[in-house]
Design goal:
This protein has five helices and three strands; from the N terminus they run ααβαααββ. It has 121 residues and is mainly alpha-helical. The chain has a three-stranded antiparallel beta sheet.
Length: 121
């Protein structure tokens, strides 16, 4: 019997848990530096994850801190998310991540610059 999470939706060639765990380092880099460069498909999935984490930071409750910590596993980045990124994004209505296509080289996949506009100013 095949698993449903393998068959449903675009998946960059990995099962759900492997794909989701692969976003943790990218999210940490994005929270630290404010922008990263990745493929277009990974950027689309990364946008969903980061928007969810920033929404938790805007809410700023104990439960939302616990949920964010379950994904990030890093107190330094958690503090940055809730102390600097969350308050800056509280005026925005959503879609906290900006995706800028920067093209690919030759036959490579299309590259995208993923930015948190509240950090990159």
């Amino acid at each position: 019997m095949e698993r449903k999470d393998v068959l449903s939706g675009p998946g960059i060639g990995r099962e759900f848990l492997s794909r989701y765990a692969g976003y943790r380092p990218m999210v940490k880099l994005l929270m630290t530096h404010g922008k990263i460069r990745t493929t277009e498909e990974k950027a689309a999935h990364l946008r969903f994850v980061v928007d969810r984490l920033v929404s938790l930071a805007v809410e700023n409750s104990d439960a939302s801190r616990r949920q964010a910590y379950r994904f990030l596993n890093d107190n330094r980045i958690l503090m940055r998310l809730f102390d600097t990124i969350g308050p800056c994004c509280s005026e925005e209505g959503g879609s906290y991540v900006r995706l800028n296509p920067i093209g690919g080289s030759g036959s490579a996949s299309t590259m995208t610059m993923v930015e948190l506009p509240t950090i990159v100013k």
